[in-house]
Amino acid sequence: MSSAVGPETFRRVCSQFATGVAVATVRAADGTPHGLTVNSFTSVSLDPPLILICIGDLCDILPHFAASCWFGINFLTSAQQNLCTVFAAETDNRFAGIEWYEAPNGAPLLPETLGWMECEKTGVIHAGDHSILLGKVVAADATDGSALVYFNRSYRTV
């Protein structure tokens, strides 16, 4: 049964929900860092600390997330809109020229973010045209600052 709501209507309505902006990161089997901009981040549980992110099934780096035990989440500041744009690009070389460091278990992290988490992947659920990755937060930290927010198809700050 097909939906009565088409893709453009769905996008337009969802754009009215403000979301924070994050970059999800992972290392390939050869150690190469990969990442992409996500606004589909949700905390799931406090005990144990669980989160989820959604990645489109056609995303070229989804196989790296599927193969890795560890991934990172980086919450962007209002001054990091350029990183959001870089990691939203459809290229396999998003980390070119981007400074990064390793989380305790090796997930790539971006410096000077509002917060970061390193997650142990605990499951993948296929839903529609996306994969939902569940992760147990094993390391995290946060700082103060202004958040980068996406609302009504444009960036805002909080």
Report the mean per-residue pLDDT as an integer.
94
Q: Helix share of residues? A: 10-25%
| Amount of beta strand | 35-45%
Element-level helix/strand string: HEEEEEHEHEEEEEE
Class, according to the CATH hierarchy?
Mainly Beta
Q: Report the major sheet.
A: 7 strands, antiparallel
Q: Give the spatial strand order of the biggest sheet.
A: 3-2-6-9-10-5-4
Put simply, the count of helices is 3
Shape: globular
Whole-number count of domains: 1
Task: Write down the Rg.
Answer: 15 Å
CATH superfamily: Electron Transport, Fmn-binding Protein, Chain A
Distance between the termini: 40 Å
| Name of the CATH architecture | Roll
Output the CATH topology: Pnp Oxidase, Chain A
Q: Give the helix/strand class.
A: mainly beta
* Unreliable runs: none
Q: What is the tally of beta strands?
A: 12
Describe the structure.
The chain has 158 residues and is mainly beta. The chain has a single domain (21-151), classed as Electron Transport, Fmn-binding Protein, Chain A (Pnp Oxidase, Chain A, Roll). Helix content is 14%, strand content 44%. It is built from three helices and twelve strands. The protein has helices spanning 7-14, 62-67, 81-88, and strands spanning 19-20, 22-27, 33-38, 41-45, 50-56, 70-75, 101-102, 108-109, 115-127, 130-142, 148-151, 154-157. The strands form three sheets. It has a seven-stranded antiparallel beta sheet. A three-stranded antiparallel beta sheet has the order 1-11-12, with no helix packed on it. Strands 7-8 form a two-stranded antiparallel sheet. Strand 2 and strand 3 form a beta hairpin. The longest helix has 8 residues, at 7-14. The chain is globular, with a radius of gyration of 15 Å.
